[in-house]
Write a structure and sequence with these properties.
The chain is built from 11 helices and 49 strands. The chain is of the alpha+beta class. The strands form 12 sheets. Strands 24-25-26-27-28-29-30-33 form an 8-stranded parallel barrel, surrounded by 5 helices. The chain has a 6-stranded antiparallel beta sheet with strand order 3-2-6-11-8-9, with no helix packed on it. The chain is globular, with a radius of gyration of 28 Å. It binds beta-D-galactopyranose. Beta-D-galactopyranose binds next to loops.
Length: about 800
């Protein structure tokens, strides 16, 4: 009996030992990095003295600290895509931040003791740009495209200890049309696993049959090593097993299994249900590897006449395009910042993202799976023909295929991804070679992933109608050109059109210009654009024009608005006007604060909550008696406006013009200070909601509103604190541009600040900034100990404010 027990305990211990040692380890190299900008001949060498280099954590963007400088990447060029024919001096096109040049990162790897049968991979999720990777002085890998993920097997180049990793990066001038960021701006991982194991990105999950009562889940698993046993198990979101299968046969190095999930819960933006596939590899009884992969069960279809369906239900994409930078954090990815963006978009009713014009970060895709966003994952802004002198065309012929392979292989199991894009407004839309390239790229996508269609964002619609370029795509995507939708739909055989990029309407948060008129490429002396949302780019149109197409044409399958948030660089319509250095296109500004237009989209897209939003602000000391139109963006059909208790009439949405169809507008209001009130009516004419704005008095005090009051003590989490200034009665002072100062104490630090002003040259990283239209946002970062962080904000004679943020260990 005793003997039996001992044997049992011993075998349990052995099993535990093996399962512990078998668990593959993924170590994210966040700490321990040294960085320096410059060209160092010897920096790859292990004994190079990096003592004077800066200590940094990765993700890291070396350029975001600034300073802004007009001379950086000044481009004397005609932006032909924007219809320009004459070259002019463009400042701020790439953000006017010091991203150009060479930079080096070094890290001394502390690895656990490796066993003879272990393999080590180094995975870089994106490095800007042209990373050259050195281990112990030897080059072990390289990649050109700064937006892509790649991994290197470094097993044979590792020493038993004292391993030095050095990564060289290089950014050329004139290499981008927006701020690309600089450095190791995404995560770097080490993956340690047994040599008998699942290959990196080796699990492919598809759901070829989805019925009401069951789903067939197909799993293909690529393995290294022979005589292995593979068990694949599906867990539901609570971790309960719902299917399990041991692979019966192998096809070369790949197993192909079909599992059945009964009563599957389907993934959708409204109900983003996720399953987990646990793949276990055994050699005999020894557990060699475990890989967990989250996936969703859902169907997609794109059909003529019917358009796009998710899980059998026709729907239209309510999407936004996003560039990859996170405003004041630059390109350095941060999960809290990404989650905040998606939270803001969710409230607007947005259900889809397009990663314009390159590979999204793994973290963004994971969040989209979890929070429920469909995803259009894009690859390139250039093919073989140039848009900018040192753009991707330099690498297209040699790298495009491997770049697509990695995009697809790294991301294929995300249920959020519903289509791929092989390009955006590529100049190759012209000419027979371009048609061949479109076909070549699409076929690579199909080979790597037979389950998802491919689009291209096309702006040269007439050329692509004639050449066959548009006809060959799975999904014809039109960028702008609403006036060509009908013709394109007739010319293209697919039977539907996607608004792959729409609207390009420009505005500055809280800024209003008079007279209120529709205008193309309008510019003002202060380099701001009006938030009456009637100003747009010459190649584009107003949001309402897209709404008409979306609402009236069943063959239009949705839109991706340019853009969800402002981004660094491309300050159209002020491309020639220093100090403009970031975009005006955003529905929300660079700080993430919603502009008025946010509520226009919300009024259409958010189907679970009502919207009633009044504009402009009501502090117009110099406009007493002058015509000051009032707009209301609302999900209600009609409303009555009152100024100081006096009715200014009822407006009802009608089809007399696109604006009258989607906005309630009182064009002839004469300004007088006081209270502007709107009362909305339901379909029966009953008053159901109201909203007010009151002229603010003298600025009195500062108000702080954190987006999250409790954050994780992981040294990376961020609370975004909106700072505003109000009068003694609590009314927002909408024109205040007071200089404020920030002080963070306790278990965290001041990370950054942003006011959303596209012309501001103040540093994002110094604890002082001017308000813009009465507001700004301070980013407070957690430390690694649980406790409290205090943020204190002061500004001249204003009453100061303080807020407390709790940091907790998860
Ligand atoms: C599009 C282009 C975007 C951006 C936008 C601005 O043509 O695809 O990257 O430049 O115009 O309106």
């Amino acid at each position: 009996m005793l003997k039996q027990k001992v044997v049992l305990i011993a075998s349990l211990l052995v099993a535990l030992y093996f399962s512990a040692s078998a668990q593959r380890k993924q170590i994210t190299l966040h700490n321990g990095w040294k960085f320096s900008k410059g060209n160092f001949i010897d920096a790859a060498k292990p004994n190079f003295n990096d003592g004077k280099w800066k200590d940094v954590t990765v993700p890291h963007d070396w350029a975001i600290s600034g300073p802004f400088d007009k001379e950086i990447d000044k481009q004397v060029t005609a932006i032909t895509q924007n219809g320009e024919t004459k070259a002019t001096e463009k400042t701020g096109r790439t953000g006017a931040l010091p991203y150009i040049g060479e930079g080096w990162y070094r890290n001394h790897l502390s690895l656990p003791d490796l066993k003879a049968n272990q393999k080590v991979l180094l995975q870089i999720d994106g490095a800007m740009s042209e990373p050259r990777v050195y281990l112990n002085g030897k080059q072990v890998g390289q990649w050109n495209y700064g937006y892509n993920y790649f991994y290197i097997d470094i097993t044979n180049d590792l020493k038993s200890k004292d391993n030095v990793l050095a990564i060289q990066l290089k950014n050329m001038p004139k290499s981008s049309r927006w701020y690309p960021g600089a450095g190791l701006y995404r995560n770097v991982h080490l993956i340690i696993k047994d040599e008998k194991s699942i290959d990196q990105w080796g699990v492919t999950i598809t759901t070829p049959v989805v019925e009401k009562g069951f789903a067939k889940v197909n799993v293909k698993t690529k393995l290294s090593g022979s005589n292995l046993r593979l068990v694949n198990q599906v867990l539901d979101s609570l971790g309960k097993e719902v299917a399990v299968d041991t692979a019966k046969s192998f096809f070369g190095q790949e197993a192909d299994q079909n599992l059945q999930v009964l009563q599957p819960k389907l993934w959708s933006p409204e109900s983003p249900y996720l399953y987990t596939l646990v793949s276990k590899v055994y050699a005999g009884n020894e557990l060699k590897d475990v890989v967990k992969t989250r996936f969703g069960i859902r169907t997609i279809s794109f059909k003529a006449a019917q358009g796009f369906s998710l899980n059998g239900k026709v729907r239209k994409f309510k999407g936004v395009c996003l560039h990859h930078d996170l405003g004041p954090l630059g390109a350095a990815i941060n999960v809290a910042a990404l989650r905040r963006q998606l939270t803001i978009l969710k409230d607007m009713g947005c259900d889809a993202i397009r990663s314009s014009h390159n590979m999204p970060s793994p973290e963004q895709l994971e969040l989209c799976d979890e929070m429920g966003f469909m995803f259009l994952a894009e690859s390139f802004d250039e093919w073989a023909k140039a848009k900018v002198e040192n753009g991707y065309h330099l690498y297209f012929n040699t790298d495009a295929e491997k770049d697509i392979i990695n995009l697809v292989q790294a991301n294929k199991n995300h249920p959020s991804i519903v289509m791929w894009s092989s390009g955006n407004e590529v100049p190759d839309q012209f000419g027979a070679e371009g048609v061949k390239r479109a076909k070549w790229l699409q076929e690579i996508f199909h080979r790597e992933d037979p389950t998802r269609p491919v689009t291209v964002g096309m702006d040269q619609v007439k050329a692509t109608m004639q050449s066959g370029f548009g006809a060959l795509l799975d999904i014809p995507g039109l960028n702008y050109r609403v006036h060509l939708y009908e013709d394109a739909n007739k010319a293209f055989p697919q039977g539907f059109i996607l608004g792959s990029e729409t609207a390009s309407t420009v505005s500055s948060r809280g800024v209003y210009k008079f007279p209120v008129v529709k205008a193309k490429d309008k510019q003002y002396d202060d380099f701001q654009s009006s938030s009456y949302d009637l100003e747009y780019c010459s190649w584009s149109n107003l949001p309402d024009d897209d709404f008409v197409m979306q609402d009236d044409k069943p063959w239009v399958i949705g839109e991706f608005v340019w853009t969800g948030f402002d981004y660094l660089g491309e300050p159209t319509p002020y491309d020639n006007s220093w100090p403009s250095r970031s975009s005006y296109f955003g529905i929300s500004d660079l700080a993430g604060l919603p502009k008025d237009r946010y509520y226009l989209y919300r009024s259409r897209w958010n189907k679970t909550q009502s919207t009633l939003h009044l504009l402009p602000h009501w502090n117009w000391e110099n406009r007493v008696g002058e015509t000051t139109p009032v707009f209301v963006y609302t999900s209600y059909d009609s409303a009555e406006l009152f100024l100081n208790g006096k009715s200014l009439g009822i407006r009802k949405k009608d089809k007399s013009s696109p604006q009258n169809r989607y906005r309630l507008m009182w064009m002839d209001v004469k300004y007088e200070p006081g209270t502007l009130k709107v009362v909305a009516f339901d379909a029966q004419g009953k008053p159901v909601a109201e909203e007010k704005i009151t002229t603010a008095g003298k600025a009195d005090r500062i108000v702080l509103t954190p987006d999250r009051k409790e954050i994780s003590a992981d040294g990376k989490d961020i609370s975004f604190v909106t700072v505003s200034v109000v009068d003694k009665d609590g009314n927002l002072c909408p024109t205040s541009n007071q200089q404020l100062s920030f002080e963070v104490s306790g278990g965290g630090k001041f990370k950054a600040v942003c006011n959303g002003d596209a012309t501001s040259l103040e540093s994002f990283e110094k604890p002082t900034m001017k308000l813009f239209s009465g507001k700004l946002v301070v980013l407070v970062e957690s430390g690694t100990a649980a406790g409290k962080i205090k943020l204190k904000v002061t500004g001249g004679k204003l009453r100061a404010a303080q807020t407390e943020i709790i940091t907790a260990k998860n």
